[in-house]
């Protein structure tokens, strides 16, 4: 496929965007060997789901701004950061995680919570909304696509990406969680200065090798576009955008609109100028304004 290197570079950017540090929030009594959930604030229920290799810590700035108006349920996937993998250490990952979030909603008797998911967390949010019916109120995905390779090559298929996903899986599983930086060029991947900047500022949180490898593999290969028709709640899609024609982000409008074209009702699109993949960290004020519109 002509854009193989670009696709792997995109995937590298996704996993190199984790947040450092551990969560300091009080855990709920909810029992799960897939996720940990912490709760803070008061008001309508809002679930925040982080991306690949991130924990709930990635939402700290957002949570501080929202906790006076909403009861926040901050999800962390076991096996990311310092969390023990437990049941995420074997077998499929993202569907069981989505199932436990739906179970959390039911057992905690949340009242049609809104969901905001970043990157991989947006894909999980799509799964939850598609399966939960009326139990979810609305969904925002943040720099997330139901099929990430289509953001690079709209004609990409799972079959196209499968060999690349196998390389990424084996690299993380057997060579270590820093391999996409340390040996990127050997794998034919040019991560470049943007990923170096992420390492220097936001940081690579890492986690259990097997969980990281499985999550990246699923994010690369699972196409959730057919599930969009099952999402019956309002959807907002937020993403980084640039007015500079030389930037890949200048094409974001058309790519994200195409990605979510199969929704029953048209999504609301929020382009966040000046943001890259970590939208809520890159442009927190503009992102919070989009969240306010989403929750209004």
Biggest sheet strand line-up: 1-3-2-4-5-6-7
Shape, per Cα inertia axes: globular
How many distinct domains? 1
Second-tier CATH architecture: 3-Layer(aba) Sandwich
CATH class: Alpha Beta
What percentage of amino acids are in beta strands?
5-15%
User: For this entry, what is the oligomeric state of its chains?
Assistant: single chain
Task: Report helical residue fraction.
Answer: 25-40%
Please outline what is shown here:
This protein has a single domain (29-151, 203-295), classed as Alpha/Beta hydrolase fold, catalytic domain (Rossmann fold), CATH 3.40.50. It is built from eleven helices and seven strands.
SSE diagram, text form:
Elements lengths: L3 H12 L19 E6 L4 E5 L10 H7 L4 E7 L16 H14 L6 E5 L1 H13 L5 E5 L15 H18 L3 H4 L9 H9 L8 H13 L13 E7 L10 H8 L8 E6 L5 H4 L1 H12 L1
Parallel strand pairs: 2-3, 2-4, 4-5, 5-6, 6-7
Antiparallel strand pairs: 1-3
Helix pairs in contact: 3-4, 5-8
Q: What keyword list fits this structure?
A:
single chain; 296 residues; alpha/beta; Rossmann fold; seven-stranded mixed sheet; 7 strands; 39% helix
